[in-house]
Design goal:
Elements lengths: L6 E6 L17 H9 L4 E4 L4 H11 L5 E3 L4 E6 L2 E6 L4 H15 L3 E3 L5 H8 L3 H7 L5 E6 L6 H10 L3 E4 L4 E4 L4 H10 L9 E7 L5 H6 L2 E4 L14 E2 L6 H11 L2
Parallel strand pairs: 1-2, 1-10, 2-3, 10-11, 11-12
Antiparallel strand pairs: 3-4, 4-5, 6-7, 7-9, 8-9
Helix pairs in contact: 4-5
C-alpha cells in the first residue's frame, strides 16, 4: 500500500457493501482486512445491524475497532478491556410503543422486527437462527416493511416527525428511529480519543444504500457499491465500484490505497 502522509480510517456498511446482499459472502475481504490492520488502518463497521450482530461480525473478521450500530444510534467500544456503550438514539421500547399507537389510530399497514418471530425474521432476511436472534436484539431502531399504499407513507413519516422520529430507507427495510444517522456516530468517534488517531487523517467510507448517504458525504473518499434495485446513489467525487460486494469492497480499497 502507498506510503501516505496521513492516517487512513475506513468506515464501512455491511449488507450489500462488505457482505454480499444475497448470500452474505465475505471471505474474499479477510486477507485485505488483515493487511489493513497490520498497516494500522482501522476498519470500523457502521451498519443498520444491531450491536449483537456486529459483535459476531467483529469475531469473524477479527476486528478490535469500535462498532457503530443501528444507523448511528449506538456506539460500542473497548477501553481497558471493558466494553463501553453509548446510545445516541431513542430507546427501542419507546419507538415500538409509538408506531403501534399509529397503527391503531390510523390503520396503516406495516410490520416490524418486533412483530415477527425468529423464524419470520429468518424468512424475511435469509439469516440463520442465531443471527436472527441477534437481529431482534434492537436498542434504538425498528426495521419495518411498509405493506400499505405508498401514497400513505408520507402521512406516516409526518406522524413520526411530530414525535421526533424519522423513517430512513435501507437496503431491505425502512428504519424507524430518532434523528441520528451514520455520519453522526462517525463524527463522534473521530472526535473521541478511543481511535487513537494520528493527525492528520483521511476517511474512506463505503456504502450502497440511502441510509449510507450521510456517512459517504462526510467522508474524504466516498465509495459506492453497485445495487440491483432501481435506487442508485448519486454522489459527486465518489469512487463507484464495478463489482458487487464483497469483491467490489476489495476492488475499491486496493484502488484507493494503491493508486
Amino acid at each position: 500500500m502507498a506510503d501516505e502522509k496521513w492516517q487512513w480510517i475506513i468506515f464501512t456498511d455491511l449488507d450489500g457493501t462488505l457482505l454480499n446482499h444475497h448470500n452474505y459472502e465475505y471471505k474474499v475481504v479477510e486477507p485485505l482486512i488483515a493487511l489493513l490492520q497490520a498497516r494500522g488502518v482501522p476498519v470500523i463497521l457502521n451498519s443498520s445491524k444491531t450491536v449483537a450482530e456486529l459483535e459476531l461480525w467483529h469475531e469473524r473478521l477479527r476486528l478490535e475497532t469500535p462498532i457503530i450500530a443501528e444507523n448511528g444510534g449506538v456506539i460500542e467500544y473497548r477501553h481497558n478491556g471493558q466494553k463501553h456503550k453509548h446510545l445516541i438514539g431513542r430507546p427501542y421500547e419507546e419507538i415500538r410503543y409509538f408506531i403501534k399507537h399509529l397503527h391503531k389510530v390510523h390503520g396503516w399497514q406495516f410490520e416490524g422486527f418486533g412483530d415477527w418471530t425468529v423464524a419470520e425474521v429468518m424468512n424475511k432476511t435469509g439469516l440463520k437462527t442465531a443471527e436472527a436472534v441477534k437481529a431482534k436484539a434492537r436498542e434504538v431502531s425498528e426495521p419495518i416493511l411498509w405493506l400499505d399504499d405508498q401514497a400513505k407513507l408520507a402521512g406516516f413519516e409526518a406522524a413520526l416527525a411530530e414525535e421526533g422520529l424519522k423513517l430512513m430507507a435501507g437496503g431491505r427495510f425502512y428504519h424507524v428511529m430518532a434523528g441520528h444517522d451514520k455520519a453522526d456516530a462517525m463524527r463522534e468517534l473521530l472526535a473521541d480519543s478511543v481511535l487513537h488517531i494520528k493527525a492528520p487523517y483521511r476517511v474512506i467510507a463505503l456504502g450502497d444504500s440511502r441510509n449510507d448517504l450521510a456517512m459517504l458525504q462526510a467522508a474524504d473518499v466516498p465509495v459506492v457499491l453497485p445495487v440491483d434495485n432501481a435506487y442508485k446513489l448519486r454522489l459527486d467525487g465518489a469512487y463507484y465500484a464495478t463489482h458487487e460486494a464483497p469483491w467490489g469492497w476489495v476492488e475499491a480499497i486496493e484502488k484507493i490505497l494503491n493508486p
